[in-house]
Every structure is written in structure tokens, then in C-alpha cells.
Design goal:
single chain, 178 residues, mainly alpha, 76% helix
């Protein structure tokens, strides 16, 4: 119903020209990386506060989606391109991590599937999901690298060799008893 209302109201008004995209990107980027993002966030505050006045609607809490953000920003082209852009970003994340260990690839794949099944998410939820998937995958890869480094330490290799030797002696002892 909200999308239909925006379609009807948007026919008579101008689009906001990317303001919602900037707001959504700003909300997904951590303040540590973009310290001045509060300026962007404070100007609009929410999608409704940007879109509704431009469309001649009173501000009220609506069911924002990637479709509504695209529609408010760039009308029909945005309605089509925003979901495609989100899908392309998820595809890019999965391509970037395809050479990682199986555990990392699996985490990225399941997190992507979980995020894409939330079809009524606002655009910033998808962007935050991409940020979180990337962070999770990088942390998992870091843990794997640390474990592989520890596994190659001489003390660990020596302990493994001793354990294998001990197991071989036990196997020989069992065979000799039979």
C-alpha cells in the first residue's frame, strides 16, 4: 500500500535525487570510517522525513524498502535499479570471498541468503548486512590464518609427530596381541 501511495503521489512531484541513497549509505558506514556522517544523518533523519515532504505527504512511519527508496530518489529507474544494485553488491561480496576457506565462504553464503530473504528490509538494512557479512568473513578468515600459523609452529609439529608415533606403537602392540 505504501509503494502504491508513493507511486500516486510521485506522479505530481519531483524526486529527491539520491538523498535517500546518501542517507542509507551514511547509516551503514561506521562513524570511525566516516566521522562527519552525523551531518548527513541529522539533515534527513529518516527516509520519510526526506521523501514525504517532496511528495506532498505528511511525515509518518512507513514500511520502507529498497523499492520505496529507489522510487523516491529516481522514480521508475530507481525502483528497478536499487534492488539490482543491492543484489549486485551481495554478488560482489560473494565473489570477493570465493577464494577464502570453505568455512568463510559458507558463512558469507548463508549470511547473504538470510539477508536477501528479508524482502521488506529498508535499503540501509541491506547495506548494514553487507558491512556485517564482510566484517564477519574477515574475522573468520583471520581466525583461520592464526590457527594455521599456530599449527605450523615447530612445537606443535613436534607434538603431532610424537602423538602419531605413540599411536603407531599402540596399533602395533594391538596387532601383536591378536
Amino acid at each position: 500500500a505504501y509503494l502504491a501511495e508513493l507511486l500516486q503521489a510521485g506522479e505530481k512531484h519531483e524526486m529527491v535525487g539520491g538523498d535517500l541513497l546518501v542517507l542509507n549509505v551514511a547509516s551503514a558506514i561506521p562513524t570511525v570510517i566516516w566521522p562527519g556522517k552525523w551531518k548527513v544523518m541529522s539533515v534527513g533523519g529518516s527516509e520519510e522525513n526526506i521523501c514525504h515532504p517532496a511528495f506532498g505527504l505528511p511525515p509518518w512511519d512507513a514500511a520502507n524498502t529498497t523499492l520505496t527508496a529507489g522510487l523516491c530518489d529516481f522514480w521508475w529507474p530507481g525502483l528497478v535499479l536499487y534492488p539490482l544494485m543491492v543484489a549486485a553488491l551481495y554478488a560482489l561480496v560473494n565473489r570477493v570471498f570465493r577464494f577464502m576457506p570453505l568455512v568463510v565462504r559458507t558463512l558469507v553464503c548463508f549470511a547473504t541468503i538470510e539477508n536477501l530473504f528479508m524482502v521488506e528490509n529498508a535499503m540501509n538494512s541491506y547495506l548494514v548486512g553487507i558491512r556485517n557479512i564482510t566484517t564477519l568473513a574477515a574475522l573468520a578468515w583471520g581466525v583461520i590464518l592464526v590457527l594455521q600459523f599456530i599449527d605450523k609452529l615447530p612445537l606443535v609439529q613436534h607434538h603431532r609427530a610424537q602423538k602419531a608415533s605413540h599411536q603407531q606403537k599402540l596399533a602395533e602392540l594391538r596387532k601383536s596381541r591378536v
